[in-house]
Amino acid sequence: MNIIVIEDEDLAAEDLINTLKRVEPNAVVEQRLTSVENSIAYLEKNKSAQLIFSDIQLGDGLSFEIYERIKIEIPIVFCTAYHEYMLQAFRNNGIDYLLKPLSEDAVRHTMHKYYGLKRSMQSAMPDWSTLYRNLAQESSQRVKSILVNYQDKIIPLQMAEVALFYIQHENVLVKTNDGKEYLVSKSLDELDKSLGTDFYRVNRQHIVNRSVIRHASYSLARKLVLDIKINHDIRILVSREKSGSFLQWLGGE
After folding, report:
1. Would you place residue 88 in the very low, low, confident or very high pLDDT band (cuts 50, 70, 90)?
2. Could you tell me which of 41, 110, 48 has the C-alpha nearest to residue 73?
3. Is 92 within 8 Å of 133 (Cβ atoms)?
4. What pLDDT, on a 0 to 100 scale, did the predictor assign at position 126?
C-alpha cells in the first residue's frame, strides 16, 4: 500500500517513516509533504495513496485547511501533541488520532484498525463517508458525569453542572456553575480525553466549559484572556498558538 506522510518536523517525519517500515514492511511512503500549500499541490495531482498520516500544526497553518480546499477520499490518521483537535479530525476523514511522541505499538494498532475498517467497509458500507460520520459522532459522545470527592463522600457530578477544571497546588479541582469546588481523582490529561466538545483545554492548568465564557479579549501579549461567569481567582489565558482553534471551538465549529 502507498502512504503519504504530512509532517514538517524532520525528526518526527523520520521517526514515523521508520516506524511504518517496521510495522508495515509492504507499505511504501510515496511522499513526505511539509506544508499546507505543497500538500494541496501534490494531492490535487496524485491519487495513488491509500492512507495519509498527517500532522495537524504545520508551518503555514493547520492541515485541516488541506482537506477543506480539496476533496480527499482516502482515510487519514492525524498525529499531534494536542487533544483539542480530535472532533475536527474525525470530521475530516480521520480514522485515528495519535498523540506524539508516537509509539510503535500505537502505529501498529492504527494499521490493524485501518485494515479492520476496510474489511467492514467492503462488507457493509458502500464507501468511507458513513464511517467518518459514525466516528465523528462517537468522538462527541463523552462522559455525562464524573465522580468527585467531598469530605468522606464520593459524589456523581453531572457534566452539565461543570464550569471548569483546573490545577491548584498539584491537585485537580472541578468548579461548578454555582461556584462549588470538589477534588477530582483524574488528571487534566485524562479528563481532556474523555470530555465532550463543550469543553476545551485552554492551557496546562485549565479546561473550560463553553457555556461559562462571557467573552474573550486580547491582552498586550496577544494572548486571549477569558471573562467567565463565575468567580475564579486565577486569570485564564489562551496561548497565541491555540487562539485560532480556540476561537473556532468557541464559535461552535
Report:
1. low
2. 48
3. no
4. 44
φ and ψ at residue 41, rounded to 5 degrees: -60, -40
Determine the Cα–Cα distance for residues 63 and 68; give it in Å rounded to an integer.
Answer: 9
- Side chain identity at residue 80, one-letter code: T
The residue from 140, 157, 182 where one domain ends is 140
Cell of 11: 525528526
Place of cell 499546507: 36
Question: CA torsion, points 246, 223, 83, 205, in degrees to nearest 10?
Answer: -120
Q: Are residues 81 and 120 in the same domain?
A: yes
**Long-range CB contact pairs, 69-73, < 8 A, 24+:** 69/40, 70/40, 70/43, 70/44, 72/43, 73/127, 73/128
Give dist(CA 101, CA 91) in Å, integer.
23
Provide mean pLDDT across the span 204-220: 91
Residue type, 106: A
Average pLDDT, the chain: 83
Q: Grid coordinates in use for 30?
A: 510515496
Last residue of a domain, one of 101, 118, 140: 140
Residues belonging to the chain: 253
106: domain CATH number is 3.40.50.2300
Domain count, the chain: 2
Q: Which residue, 212, 196, 126, is CA-closest to 163?
A: 212
User: C-alpha angle 217/166/55, rounded to 5°?
Assistant: 70
What confidence tier does 122 reach under pLDDT thresholds 50, 70, 90? low
CA atoms within 13 A of residue 80's CA, in its CB half-sphere: 21
Rg over CA atoms, the chain: 20
DSSP states along 13-29: HHHHHHHHHHH-TT-EE
